[in-house]
Amino acid sequence: MKMQKSKPENIHFGLAILYVISWVFVSFALPVIANDEFSFTVTLLLMIPLILPAILHYFVGAGVKQRKEWARQVSIIIGFFLLFLFPIGTILGIFLMVRLSKGNWNKMIEEEAASSPA
Fold first, then answer.
1. How many CB atoms are located within 10 Å of the residue 13 CB?
2. Are 7 and 53 in contact, with CB atoms under 8 Å apart?
3. What residues have CB less than 8 Å from 93, skipping those under 6 apart?
4. Is 5 left (phi over 0), alpha (psi -120 to 50) or beta?
5. What b/e readout covers 65-78, taking b as 16+ CB neighbours within 10 angstroms?
6. 48-66 pLDDT, tens per residue?
7. Which three-class secondary structure state does DSSP give residue 31?
8. Residues contacting 100, CB < 8 A, separation 6+
9. Closest of 85, 72, 69, 70 to residue 12, by C-alpha
10. Exposed/middle/buried for 91, CB within 10 Å: 0-12, 13-18, 19+?
11. pLDDT of 15-35, one tens digit each?
12. What DSSP assignment string belongs to 69-102?
């Protein structure tokens, strides 16, 4: 039996979900924790930086799933920045950069072409 390899787009979709969960937590829990005057401003300031990466990861993940070259390049850049988020980000960054290197990218495209019905 052939072992299924992890797909790079799943990393992006997973990170998008993580950011959305964080966004929901900030938008609902923070107003309860903080006082009323402070909470609205802080909630807005924290919600924007959490939702923008979620949107970015979603669209890059969709592009990688469709094997778009722009998505591969953006994903490698994201992987580079993930390297600095030790230890989990480092692992995810290395995974993205290795799996989306030109050789592995071409191999994934060829494998999909070979496995799809003609």
1. 18
2. no
3. 78, 79, 80, 81, 82, 83, 85
4. beta
5. eeeeeebbebbbeb
6. 887 899 999 999 999 999 9
7. helix
8. 8, 64, 72, 75, 76, 79
9. 72
10. middle
11. 999 988 988 887 777 666 666
12. HHHHHHHHHHHHHHTTSTTHHHHHHHHHHHHTSH
- Please provide residue 68's backbone torsions phi and psi, each rounded to the nearest 5 degrees: -85, 135
Q: Are 75 and 67 in contact (CB under 8 A)?
A: no
Asked if 58 contacts 13 with a C-beta cutoff of 8 angstroms, the reply is: yes
Residue with tokens 């994934």, as numbered in its chain: 108
pTM for the structure as a whole = 0.78
Q: Which helix (H) or strand (E) holds 108?
A: helix 102-115
Least Cα distance to 63 among 55, 32, 88 occurs for 55
